[in-house]
Design goal:
2 copies of one chain form a homodimer. With 227 residues, chain A is α+β, with helices and mostly antiparallel strands. The first copy, chain A, contains 7 helices and 11 strands. The first copy, chain A, binds a DNA duplex (19 and 19 nucleotides) through helix 3.
Chain lengths: 227, 227
DNA sequence: AAGTGGTCTAGACCACTCC
DNA sequence: GAGTGGTCTAGACCACTTA
C-alpha cells in the first residue's frame, strides 16, 4: 500500500460520501490497520489531502472532512520574458524612465519605509514581437539592493535582474482589472479606458521591503491555472 | 534537528549564495550526516523546498538549485457568499435566468460534450449589501448532476449547491480583464465599457465536464494572495 | 488527563536515470 | 551498472488540544 493509494482511497470515500462533510474520519492508527500499512504512510496521505484543503486536522481533535472546501489553485507567475517566449514570440524591453526620486506615500507605506530617502523608479515596457505586451512601473529601495544601481538595465530588465540577484523573497500579489488612463493607453497602444489586467506585487526580504511593482497587461491577457 | 530547521538552513545557503542557481547540492545522505539527523528528515525538508520551486530533484541526477524560480502563489477561491461575508457585507443572490437550452459550441467544447443535449443555463446576480457584486453565467450538464434540476436555487445559489453536492473535482481557472458589454453593464449597474475582472472556470469530475462558469466582477474587485 | 496528530530515527528496498 | 531520490516500516517520543 503506497501513500498515493491510501490518498486515492480516502479521496474516494469522500467523493462517494461514505464520509460526509464535517464528519470525523477514523484516526491514523485505525486506518493503517484497516488498509494494511504503517501509520507513517497514512499520515503522509492525509497530510497531502489536508494541504489540498479536503481535510482539516487537529491534534486530539482528529481529522474531519472540510465542509465547504475553497477551490485551491497553485499559481505560477513566471518571468515576463519567459511568459512571452512561451507564446513563441520574440522578447524585448525598453526602459522608458529611470529616476531616483522621493516616492509617493502609497509606495512608502507598502514597502514599510519611514524616512524620506529617494527610491529608484523604473518604467519598463515589455514587448512581444515588437508589440507592447505589458507596462511595468516599479519602485526599488536601493538600500536593500545597492548593486542594482550599477546594473545595465537596458540589457537585462529589472524584473529579471531582481529574480537573478534576489531570488528568494516573500511577497503579496494582487490581481485586478483597471481601465487604462490616457498615458498608459498611449504606451500600450490601446484605446483610453480599455480593460487592462493589472498585477501588483510587493516583495520583501526578511523584514525590509525590496520592491513594489505595478504591471498593466495589454487587453486579452489571461492568467490560467488548474485547480 | 527538525525538518523545518533543515529546510531553513538549506534555504539560507541558497539565499546566501553558498549554493548557486543551477548547481547541485550535496546528496541527502551527506547532508543528514553533516546536519546530524536522519535522511528522512533531510528528504522531507528538500521535498518541501522542491514543492516551493526552489529546488529541482531527480533520481540519480541529484538535487539542484532552480535557476529562475517562478513566483508561486497559492490561490484560494472561496464561495462567493463567503467572499462577500468576509467583507462584512450582507449576502444575497437573485436568479435572473434559468433555462434548459442547447448550449453554444464554445461551452460544449470546454465541457467535452459531443451530442446535442440541452444544458441548464443559469444567470445569477450576487449582491453585497444589496449592491451588485458579481454576475455569474453558468452552464451545467444535468447528465452529471441530475439532482440539481430539483434544487431550490432561489434559496441556495447554484455555486453553493454545487460545492456542497459535488465537492471534489478538478478544473481549469482563468483570470482576465474585459470591458463590460451593454447587458452586463446594466445588470452590474456600471458604465458600458467599464473594466471588469473576469474569472472563468471549468470543472470536471473524473472524465465528464460538470459545469463551466463565467464570473464578471464589479470594478474594484481584487484577488489577493501571498507568494 | 488523555487522545490524536506531528515528527524523528534507522534501516531497508525500490525506481528511475545518467553514464 | 551504479548512484540518487522515493518510499515503506516499526517504534518511539513529543506537542497540542479538547473533553
Amino acid at each position: 500500500m503506497t501513500w498515493q493509494r491510501v490518498r486515492a482511497e480516502v479521496h474516494r470515500r469522500i467523493t462517494d460520501r461514505l464520509w460526509l462533510p464535517g464528519e470525523s474520519i477514523p484516526i491514523e492508527a485505525d486506518l493503517a490497520l484497516e488498509l494494511g500499512c504503517s501509520r507513517s504512510t497514512v499520515n503522509r496521505a492525509l497530510r497531502a489531502l489536508a494541504e489540498e484543503g479536503l481535510l482539516e486536522r487537529r491534534r486530539k481533535g482528529g481529522t474531519r472532512v472540510t465542509k465547504t472546501p475553497a477551490a485551491r489553485a497553485k499559481l505560477s507567475v513566471p518571468l515576463i520574458r519567459i511568459e512571452i517566449e512561451a507564446q513563441g514570440a520574440r522578447y524585448a524591453h525598453r526602459v522608458l524612465r529611470r529616476e531616483r526620486i522621493r516616492s509617493p506615500a502609497t509606495v512608502r507605506t507598502s514597502l514599510g519605509i519611514t524616512d524620506e530617502r529617494r527610491l529608484l523608479h523604473l518604467e519598463t515596457l515589455h514587448l512581444a514581437d515588437g508589440c507592447p505586451f505589458v507596462l511595468e512601473d516599479r519602485w526599488v529601495d536601493p538600500l536593500t539592493v545597492p548593486s542594482l544601481l550599477e546594473a545595465d538595465l537596458e540589457r537585462i530588465s529589472v524584473n529579471e535582474w531582481l529574480v537573478a540577484h534576489v531570488p528568494l523573497s516573500r511577497g503579496d500579489i494582487a490581481f485586478s482589472a483597471v481601465a487604462a488612463d490616457a498615458a498608459t493607453a498611449s504606451i500600450l497602444e490601446v484605446e483610453p479606458g480599455a480593460a487592462l489586467f493589472v498585477v501588483e506585487r510587493t516583495t520583501w526580504r526578511d523584514e525590509s521591503g525590496i520592491t513594489c511593482v505595478h504591471l498593466s497587461y495589454r487587453p486579452g491577457h489571461r492568467v490560467e491555472t488548474t485547480l
